[in-house]
Amino acid sequence: MNIRVLMLSWEYPPHSVGGLAKHVEELSEALVAKELEIHVLSVGSPDGSRMEKRNGVFVYRIEPYNISAPNFLSWVHQLNFRMVEEAIKLFKQYKTYDLLHAHDWLVGYAGRVLKHAYVTPLVATIHATEAGRNQGLHNDDQRYINSIEWWLTYESWKVIACSEHMRREVKGLFGLPDDKIQVIPNGVDWKKFKAGLYNISFGDGKIIFFVGRLVREKGVQVLLDAAPAILAREPAARFVIAGTGPMEDQLKYQARLMGLEHKVEFLGYIDDATKGALYQQASVAVFPSLYEPFGIVALEAMAAGVPVVVSDTGGMGEIVTHGVNGLKAYPGNAESLAYNILHALQNEVLRQELKKNGKRLIEEVYSWDKIAERTIQVYRQVRDEYLQSPWYKENNVAPGDRPEPGEQEQNYTAPERYSLVERRAGSFSRPERRNWQ
After folding, report:
1. Potential cystine with 304: which of 273, 279, 285, 322 (Cβ 3.0-4.6 Å)?
2. pLDDT in tens, 220-268
3. Architecture of domain 191-364 in this structure
4. Class assignment of domain 4-187+369-425?
5. Are 292 and 128 spatial neighbours (Cβ–Cβ below 8 Å)?
């Protein structure tokens, strides 16, 4: 399928903050394997390459302006200005992109500007929501981010959610119609977790392994609360926690306060080789999230052949079938978490069954090859609808012959203006819905 896509993402390896970077990278590479032309515009570093071709993907890296940003939201604004600036050069060089694909609210401004400037349909993947992360909206910054999330979904032709949980969440939060949302899960490259691939030793004893951002919603504090009950039955067990985040010092203090510093090891950030080795040596991988739109780490653990224990929440609860390919604990319940971890550690027959079924699930449902196919179906649908839409026809745009911004100024009519607050409150007269919006 001859189609060129410009992806917008605020992170892309090696610049990685969370799971989004890995998702965009592996999805892009899987789409390239299906003969799509994928260009990714993302954040770089001053000493890094501005453009490179990584495994067939054209990656363009930019740095926000060298202006001191007073807060994160201001930094995001600067990032979007720089993305638009760089994208103008890319559109001038390549003449056209068939689709724009924006990942999360952090690139929402750039996605919206490029959509209208170049009359190009926009697809958005919502990986998580501000309301979900914080279990509500409690201050002006959170409400502002929520409004940008709504704006991005409103401007997008299709919205991709990574789980049924996320589909329900974005539908409820943003009032999206069912036919605008497409559920496509995250995937995992199981070949990166084959047995014997890594030769790093982490000592003796049963390893209870967690990897992820150290933030409240990942639930590491619950795992520490469960540790005494686990150690009472498995005194040789060790807890290995990998990742960084704003709760790191608080979690270390909690471990010291509980007298667990000799049993809990905080590794900080780890590379893929170290993570792969830990998966292979772990006795159980534990992900006690309080909020989890999907949970790609659970797929990685399954691919590596490690029994998984997760909280029965969000997308994580959809991946794991209790007692079949993993075990599920009640969210935020240390007693339930300890019980399930001990069950996974002490029942060898169950352990082997969980390993076997977990690997089968990865191969049959969560391979990137299958996920790329489903993404291409969305791209094809959007492209076909766009070519038949009044938006395309009114702008008289032929593929490969799109106008530069400003060429059609004489024919331009400004749209009716209204604020996000008015739009959300429904205090304006809703225009007749057009099938290209």
Report:
1. 279
2. 999 999 999 999 999 999 999 999 999 999 999 999 999 999 999 999 9
3. 3-Layer(aba) Sandwich (3.40)
4. alpha beta
5. no
